[in-house]
């Protein structure tokens, strides 16, 4: 049993009911003060107290909509019904031909679902599952465990539809997303060291308060809602030959594959996972969801240790191929999208392009390929690091060390050789104390900017030509 104590509040939203009930995003607005004296109310689970002990018990509470022993598959009719219901409440995002088409020798289209109001495809399923609630359940509300996009989507559409939403977020959830959920009107509970503990506690609350638990990647209505992206893709790119879709819990690829394969059976469905989170491939190998350890990854939205049983049962017969991409290529994909598409996409959303950059789909050359850019909620503090990692992966940011004479002019000669190659020095450091050669030498460690990998290798060749002790670190 785990015990934690929190003081927590609900941030109330001021606004007219008719604004919240319609699907017009421009009607959503915040009115009035956010001063805590006027806009705080006790969280509804509190009983005669401003503080309640939050306890995680060992009781196993199962989700009736996600039973591994009796998985539910969705049909094309389910996806069509979802499309009809959410029309007007969710953006129909563009699917444009990319500037990178010539670069990769294919007609490359990007389905830009990161342009949804809350920044991800999760709005499709969230909107539909809320619209499918009975009147009684809509009054009671729903609950979900999420560290990011599902929480944002459910909070926002719950506000629009005037349905109470509670989200349980782990303590590692980005504060920006926690606050955004509060601003959208959700009851936010921060509990658990990871998603597993948050989900377990959310299930406890759902039983205690009569709230419907909504699995963000496996509830059947979630799958149907996510499948509406596939309907839009086939309408926007009718000549499509293949669709590359990021895979975490499996909801997006399951729903989209149903739509795409029913309308055009020849379409190749290719799923992509990070090398540090391969739960769906493991599930496909074993025939059922299995626990798969996940590591720290740029594609944190795909880091699901146990994939959805409904998603697996629906998607497995429809997926043509699953592939795994390296972290360095995810970083490079984010960089390419910023530079060439002027699009800021999170790691999970960029894995499809990463597969192309890594050269994992050579069979698609000359074909019409749609890549789902499914999320854009990258943490701003991490974006700078990701860009630098992408530059390093492309050979445009290089680190090297070289031992030169510590006599006057030694370092000047080095910097002149670097400049003569058209290389820009970004950082430089001298090391004398740990040098193993003579005391009249110095190791100079440089971080430099080059045009590309070929330019970086030309620099390495030049350094080795003139200096005996040279170390180069090229991310290849």
Brief synopsis:
The chain has 476 residues and is of the alpha/beta class. It has three domains: 2-58 and 142-210, 3-Layer(aba) Sandwich (Rossmann fold), CATH 3.40.50.1100; 76-120 and 222-391, Rossmann fold, CATH 3.40.50; 395-473, Alpha-Beta Plaits (2-Layer Sandwich).
CATH class call of the largest domain = Alpha Beta
* Distance, first to last CA: 47 Å
- Helical amount: 25-40%
Task: Please state roughly what percent of the residues sit in beta strands, choosing from under 5%, 5-15%, 15-25%, 25-35%, 35-45% or over 45%.
Answer: 15-25%
Which regions are unreliable across 5 or more consecutive residues at pLDDT < 50? 1-51
Spatial order of the strands in the main sheet?
5-6-14-11-12-13
CATH topology of the largest domain: Rossmann fold
Cofactor: pyridoxal 5'-phosphate
Keywords: Lyase, Pyridoxal phosphate
Domain Tryptophan synthase beta chain-like PALP: 87-375
Pfam families: PALP
How would you describe this protein?
This protein has three domains: 2-58 and 142-210, Rossmann fold (3-Layer(aba) Sandwich), CATH 3.40.50; 76-120 and 222-391, Rossmann fold, CATH 3.40.50; 395-473, Alpha-Beta Plaits. Helix content is 39%, strand content 20%. It has 19 helices and 18 strands. It has a six-stranded mixed sheet, with helices on both faces. A four-stranded parallel sheet has the order 9-8-7-10, with helices on both faces. Strands 16-17-15-18 form a four-stranded antiparallel sheet. Strand 8 (165-169), helix 8 (175-183) and strand 9 (187-190) form a beta-alpha-beta unit. It is elongated, with a radius of gyration of 26 Å. It starts with a strand and ends with a strand.
């Amino acid at each position: 049993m785990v015990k934690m104590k929190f003081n927590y509040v609900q941030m109330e939203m001021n606004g007219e009911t008719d604004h919240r009930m319609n699907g017009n995003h421009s009607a959503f607005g915040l009115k009035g003060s956010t001063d805590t004296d006027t806009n705080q109310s006790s969280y509804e689970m509190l009983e005669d107290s401003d503080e309640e002990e939050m306890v995680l018990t060992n009781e196993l509470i199962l989700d009736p909509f996600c039973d591994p022993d009796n998985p539910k598959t969705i049909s094309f009719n389910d996806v069509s019904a979802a499309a009809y219901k959410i029309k007007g409440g969710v953006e129909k995002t563009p699917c444009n031909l990319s500037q990178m088409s010539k670069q990769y020798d294919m007609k490359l289209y990007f389905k830009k679902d990161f342009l949804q109001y809350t920044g991800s495809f999760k709005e499709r399923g969230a909107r539909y599952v809320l619209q499918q609630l009975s009147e009684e359940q809509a009054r009671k509300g729903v609950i979900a465990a999420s560290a990011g996009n599902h929480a944002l989507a459910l909070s926002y559409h719950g506000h629009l539809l005037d349905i109470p939403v509670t989200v349980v977020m782990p303590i590692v959830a980005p504060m920006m997303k926690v606050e955004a959920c509060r601003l959208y009107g959700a009851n936010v509970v921060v509990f658990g060291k990871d998603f597993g503990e948050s989900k377990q506690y959310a299930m406890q609350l759902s039983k205690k308060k009569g709230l419907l638990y909504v699995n963000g990647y496996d509830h059947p209505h979630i799958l149907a809602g996510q499948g509406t992206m596939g309907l839009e893709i086939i309408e926007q790119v009718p000549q499509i030959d293949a669709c590359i879709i990021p895979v975490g819990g499996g909801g997006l690829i399951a729903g989209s594959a149903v739509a795409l394969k029913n309308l055009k059976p020849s379409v190749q469905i290719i799923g992509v996972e990070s090398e540090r989170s391969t739960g769906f491939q493991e599930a496909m190998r074993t025939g059922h969801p299995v626990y798969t350890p996940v590591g720290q990854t740029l594609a944190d939205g795909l880091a699901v240790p146990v994939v959805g049983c409904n998603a697996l049962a629906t998607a497995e017969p429809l997926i043509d191929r699953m592939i795994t991409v390296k972290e360095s290529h995810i970083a490079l994909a984010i960089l390419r999208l910023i530079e060439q598409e002027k699009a800021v996409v999170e790691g999970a959303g960029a894995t499809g392009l990463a597969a192309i950059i890594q050269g994992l789909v050579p069979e698609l050359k000359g074909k019409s390929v749609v890549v789902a850019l499914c999320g854009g909620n990258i943490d701003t503090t991490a974006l700078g690091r990701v860009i630098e990692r992408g530059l390093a992966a492309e050979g445009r940011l290089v680190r090297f060390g070289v031992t030169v004479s510590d006599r006057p002019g030694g370092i000047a000669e080095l910097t002149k050789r670097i400049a003569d190659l058209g290389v820009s020095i970004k950082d430089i450091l001298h090391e004398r104390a740990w040098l193993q050669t003579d005391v009249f030498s110095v190791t100079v460690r440089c971080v430099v900017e080059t045009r590309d990998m070929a330019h970086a290798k030309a620099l390495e060749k030049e350094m080795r030509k003139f200096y005996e002790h040279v170390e180069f670190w090229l991310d290849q």
